[in-house]
């Protein structure tokens, strides 16, 4: 017997659409007890939220998130609005006993993340942070291979996340479309927006990061603000690179920029271990590259004439999530990662499991690394992530 779960969606932009699409699709592909109901959505401007509600099939809409949270017919609050709005919404939703799903990054800084995490845990409400890339089947398979000891003792982890959409002096900052370039709204630039994904994936696959040393750069120092029309200083980082040492002793390199001409969403990682290696590229997401040097059980080395990188096409029914989608050889895309994530969240509610990962505490952990990276870039020295705990 299905159980309705009434959704209150805050935000109508990119994330509002991706999350809403997941709510609409999840029960069509996954056998779940809970069934999301698009009860209400919310944004400040009626001329924006009304057509969004009508297009996506929400039963109603609000222009004040406080009214949305106060409604007795809302079970879950989903936050897809800009970063600087998350704090008040999370605290109010937790106090009202609502489940909370929040877009990444969890907070503007560690202090905010701690406050939100404490509020959520005190309220005892189900929660999740939308680090959706964990639910790319190839990345989930990478986690499976790590857990099966097929990589062995890790030595190196390297990640890149490259885009090119902010190149140019004439690109403004702020406003509905470009708030990610406004430090007062976003908190940081590529560190919180892009590297947060890379950090979450890295710690999921390779364990906690112990210490970092970083360098950031803002290539365009001033931009016109879309809301004021005035030229103002740019406070976000356009590019960031950092070295990392993991708790397991392995070394890491991370690079992110919005100034890599020709790169649209180039998100990669490579993990090198004693008995194998893994490589993934989000722009070719149906594949996971695996190098097998030795058998994880026997320790026996692969015959020399058989060694080499193996490209796994992650579309068979035995691969993560793929038994719910199409026949082997037919790929899935970006939007499916949100549906996969939502299915895991709903399944955890059904089975009464601990909070599905990544939860708010996991989001706090990622924020600690982000803050350590920014502090290192400012201070020009190695910084311990534990100092931000």
Summary tags:
389 residues, alpha/beta, Rossmann fold, Dihydrodipicolinate Reductase, domain 2, 9-stranded mixed β-sheet, 6-stranded parallel β-sheet, 34% helix, globular
Describe this structure in words.
This protein starts with a strand and ends in a 5-residue tail after the last strand. The strands form 3 sheets. Strands 16-15-14-13-7-12-11-8-17 form a 9-stranded mixed β-sheet. The protein has a 6-stranded parallel β-sheet with strand order 3-2-1-4-5-6, sandwiched between helices. The chain has 2 domains: 3-130, Rossmann fold; 133-379, Dihydrodipicolinate Reductase, domain 2 (2-Layer Sandwich), CATH 3.30.360. It is globular, with a radius of gyration of 21 Å. Strand 9 and strand 10 form a beta hairpin. With 389 residues, the protein is an alpha/beta fold. The chain has helices at residues 14-29, 46-56, 65-70, 86-95, 110-123, 137-147, 175-178, 183-186, 190-206, 334-351, 360-379; strands at 3-10, 34-42, 60-62, 76-79, 99-102, 127-129, 154-162, 209-217, 222-224, 231-233, 239-246, 251-257, 266-273, 276-281, 287-292, 309-313, 383-384. Helix 6 runs parallel beside helix 9.
